[in-house]
Amino acid sequence: MLRQCSRVWPWSRARGGLFGRSRGFALVNQSRIHRLRPLAIGAVGAATATAYTAYTLWRREDEIELPAVPEPTPTFKHPYETWPWYQKAWFAFKRSVFLAWVFAPFMCASTLLMLFGKESENWREIWLQQMLACTQRAGAAFQKFGQWLSMRPDMFPPDVIVVLSKLRADAPAHPGVVSRRKLKEHLGKDVEELFDEFQEEPIASGSVGQVHRARLRAEHALDGPGGNLRDVAVKIQHPGVIDSAFMDLNIVWKVVEFSENFLHMTVPFDRSDFDAVIQAQMDFTREAFNLQRFAKNFKGERRIRFPKVSSRFVTPEVLVETWESGEIISNIMEDFDNAKAKCQEAVTALEEKKRTVQGKLSKILYDMSMKMMVRDNFVHGDLHGGNILYSMSDDHVTVLDCGIATSLDKRTFAPFGVFLHALCSGQTDTVVEYLQRFNEANLVVNTKQLKSDIQATMDKYMGPFRMNPQGPLNAADMFGEVMFTLQRHGMLLKGDVASTLFTISISEGLVRQLDPSFDVAEQALPYITKYMGMKTYFSRPESLPELRRKICREAHEMLLVSAAVRWSLLVFLSLLLSSLLDLGYSSDEADPDEDDEDEDFPESVYTLKDGTFDDFLKGHERALVEFYAPWCGHCQKLEPEYNQAADALRMEGAKTVLAKVDATVEKALAERFEVKSFPTLKYFASGGDPIEYDGPRQADGIAEWLRKREKPVVEEIANSEVDAFIEKGLGSGAYVVVAHVKKKSARAKAFFKAAQTFVDYKADKIRFAAVWLEKSADPKKDALMAMSCPDVSDLDPKKFDFSGSWTDGAIQKWVVSGTYPTIGQGFKVEKYGAEAVRDVGAKGAVVGIYENDEAAKTVTELFTKVAPKEKDWRFTAVLRSSLETPDVLGVRGEVSAQITVLHGEKKYVLKEGLSEEALKKLLADILAKKAKPHYKSAAAPQATEDGVTILTGDTFEQIAMDSKKDVFVEFYAPWCGHCQKLAPVWSELAKKVEKQGFAKKGVVVAKMDVTENECEEQITGYPSLILHPAVKKEKKMRQKLIYGGQREFDPLMDFVVENSVNLEDVEMADSVGKQASLVDRERKKKKKEL
679: cis peptide before it, omega within 30°? Predict the structure, then answer.
């Protein structure tokens, strides 16, 4: 889009190219060489000193930290979203007419060329001129596309590349007065106030904006007043470019809709994703943020640089960045070509020099692009030659225009690595497998035909009978044919995968332009190995016999197909202008009866049998094994998550492997490991007994659970490293436990076993370390252990020693108890919930919730008085806004400070004022069972609904615990399907009770939404139907009856009649209750059957 130009070689073009007026190479005799030797040695020394000085200055500059640019909001808002419809329509009409007028000469020239001038150089020259002129006049969208195409000399004739390359520097510029006005508007100061020097004439103009060279005033230096970073490039957006660019895209989308309706063409990505990418291209704040992230990723790498930016000089339309030395790569190549033409006597030297520079550049750029992709998962999305500066003086490149950057979804990154490895090494089965995993289309894919088509492409480009067996792989053409194959099969790739593949194609084109012999596929494998943990091997696959013959017989036809593929792809690219460019063609649906191949993933999840199980465990240090049944719905749901976790761990090079056993077939294994339900997961480590997997069932959770167990829970350190270990742990907010024990002693084993129980401990961060005692030490007398605590108050010691029994249970309990200070900070259910505090022998937890600093001070002062005296309770204070689930603590909205006590399964709220006496009284009343629990309650919209009484947390005790009433309650959740099905039956029951006069006798049919209300009942499933009989209040809960029959009217009515205390002496009418129902129901059933 935009680039900087330097003053390196200012005389090069004026004096005839790179070397000026060269007179060739003169021969130097031996005597002159001897006379010049001292001078040469001195020159070498001076050059070394200069290089060292330059390196030192670069290191200083590289270490400068500028104010960070915050990441722009990802929310996309169309530039003219707020326009009225008639204004949009008028602008669209004007823009359509303008584009039609702009491209009319080119379309006419194309028609004339095809009809009359196929062999005429003059007609072709006219056609090329019209191509350039029309594309430049059309605006940013079309100029950007032309820039991308100019980097693909392997796909277009040289004269087209030459013409399109002019778009990189010859885009029309706006007047200097417009630049001054924009600087004043966006930076708030006039040019003279900001800059000592400002070049009115732009040094470069691109499709979106232009660049001026300037020098900031000392007080406005990028690195602060008086700083060194004053030489800058000022990028200013062209006026009106956003409106015109997005309107162009709207027009293009209309063309796409027409194609979908009449030509059956489709595009494989969402328009919102597409617009978001263009927004990033137009927003300089996005470019500034990306620049800082790239600079951070490549910090310390001398040969790769990015301009520095400061948030003080960044707006959506103006960007001030450091001036970087260097020359545009395309200009360097042009200089070489010009020098070659004018200096025939130096042709050999120039070619060698050019090859050297091209070789260096291709390696540097490929190294950079692969690190961006497989190491950082953050890739420059517009990496063409016009966006890269190369400094020959110190052999480094500077990357510009970082407005577009792509990255893969976190869950896609590892599988994409497997796919990329397979694609580069010719593993057709794996390529097809992962293409289907990345497919988001709803059409049925003919897997066998897809595999055959992909195999044909692999054979063509990688097989032994390819067109150029000794040459490098043309990855871009191969990618193009793979994408075309996907179009024919109606497949739609995930947006991030499509974007990444297109970015790879652009980078490969740049590298191949510099070094045509560079094999990007083969060179990619070491990077995948190093950064993604893949086992590397590179092999060109042997072709299937029939495909070999086909390739040899139809080579010419395939070349024509390849050209057609490229042109068809580029026609769509020119319309859509996106970095998500994977195009789809909707073909007829595959035969639905065709069986899709559903293969396992042998590279990630192993399938075990009885005969291989034990040998497998011996060959792997750690393994997670799933015992499943093919018919089990839970197993089927787990399978994709399990496979994805296996992929991720394999890509990371983890020691843990995942396997599965079909327990319905391998019954001996299922019996041996006591498999009672499906799926059952067992974790095996170092030949020990398996433990039951109790972790998450999602891919990320499974992988993280296994990662934790690969890391040693206890670090082994030297005695001299203890202080540093403790300091580092406390600095990270962790509790630090250090044991001095003798290796292999019973106390060491107990310590390690206790530490292992904290692998999944969520309440606090705890770090463990062991210091080995000398061989002469007594394993009992000399063993000691201490715990250091972070951020403790004056009420607690910073460190305390262990004095209990050296058993794993005692150590584990001591460690947990040590994580409770007198007054804690923050709240986690895992730490202060009823079960957690019970495990450390406490009565419960006292939680102070505060809204602001003043309330925090009040809570802290109260706890400081009470906590030291109430040692049976655990105290903690927490900021209200940090609570993830305020309902757990019964937080009320009208108070700034609140005390909640958690005891057993209930919570109690202090309502009598925050005083020492009131809090002590509440704690005493809780233990004496005199305090009233607090329950969450929603406001009932009405007393009854379809005859059913509505209960809330506030009314439950009043109604359900009334000693004179039999209350039959349905505890339900609105989203529960069973509850929804029961609703009309429950309403019918309530109306029948009312109609029979039972309500007047004290029988109530009620319901409570337990997602919005709480009560004394502990509900674990929906719906729960419980009858609270008319007995004394204190006996209500003990004598309650839980209904477990069919959820139909008759059995429910029988249950009410038989068990309601208030109906014991009532005579039932016909067809009411059990007396009539047994016979009558049987008669009704027989009548229905007849």
Answer: yes
CA 1013, 1018, 1022 angle in degrees (round to 5)?
75
Task: Report yes or no: 102 and 138 within 8 Å, Cβ to Cβ.
Answer: yes
To which residue do tokens 């000089």 refer? 313
Task: Give yes or no for residue 89 having a pLDDT over 60.
Answer: yes
Cβ atoms 710, 655 nearer than 8 A: yes
Closest CA to 331 of 390, 380, 394: 390
User: What CA–CA distance (Å, rounded) separates 353 from 340?
Assistant: 11
Considering only CA atoms, which of 407, 400, 6, 406 is closest in space to residue 209? Answer: 400
pLDDT tens string 554-613: 433 433 333 334 434 443 444 333 333 333 323 333 333 333 433 333 457 899 999 889
List phi, psi (to 5°) of 458.
-60, -45
Burial 104-132 (b: 16+ CB within 10 A, else e): ebbeebeeebeeebeeeeebbebbbebbb
DSSP per-residue letters across 851-884 = SSHHHHHHHHHHHHHHTTT-TTEEEEEEEGGG-S
Q: Are 281 and 144 in contact (CB under 8 A)?
A: yes
**Helix, strand, coil percentages, rounded to 5, for the chain:** 50, 15, 35
Select the highest-mean-pLDDT range: 96-105, 170-179, 856-865.
856-865
Task: Count how many residues are written for the chain.
Answer: 1090
| Three-state secondary structure call for residue 992 | helix
Q: Which two tokens stand for residue 248?
A: 């162009």
Structure tokens that stand for 500 in this block? 């990444």
Counting Cβ atoms within 10 Å, is residue 1089 exposed (0-12), middle (13-18) or buried (19+)? Answer: exposed
Query: What whole-number distance in Å separates Cα of residue 233 and Cα of residue 321?
Result: 5
CB 398 within 8 A of CB 391: yes
Q: What is the pLDDT of residues 516-561, one digit of tens each?
A: 777 767 777 777 777 765 543 333 333 333 333 343 344 334 333 3
Instruction: Please determine, for residue 7, whether its predicted confidence score (pLDDT) is greater than 70.
Output: no
The model's pLDDT over 751-800, given as tens digits with 9 standing for 90+, comes to 998 998 888 787 788 999 999 999 899 989 999 999 999 877 778 888 98
3-state DSSP call for residue 174? Answer: coil
β partners of residue 739: 770, 785
The string of pLDDT tens digits covering residues 798-812 is: 898 999 899 999 999
Angle at 390 between CA 387 and CA 391, to 5 degrees: 145
- Confidence at 971, pLDDT banded by 50, 70, 90: very high
Q: Are 419 and 398 in contact, with CB atoms under 8 Å apart? A: no
Q: How would DSSP label each residue in 1061-1090?
A: GGGTTPPPPTTSSHHHHHHHHHHHHHHHH-
| pLDDT, tens only, 699-750 | 888 988 888 888 888 999 999 999 999 998 888 888 999 999 999 899 999 9
Distance CA(703)–CA(643), nearest Å, equals 10
Residue 597 CA to chain centroid, in angstroms?
A: 30
Pairing of strands 1003-1009, 948-951: parallel
**CA 787, 788, 790: angle at the middle one, nearest 5?**
140
Instruction: State the alpha helices, DSSP H only, in 696-767.
Output: 699-710, 722-731, 746-756
Q: Residue 279, SS3?
A: helix
What is the rounded CA–CA span in Å between residue 14 and residue 66?
Answer: 39
Cα 625 to chain centroid distance, Å, stands at: 27
Q: Identify residue 627 by its one-letter amino acid code.
A: F
Torsion of CA 891, 897, 901, 902, to 10 degrees: 40
Burial label, 155 (beta-carbon count in 10 A; 0-12, 13-18, 19+): buried
CB 325 within 8 A of CB 397: no
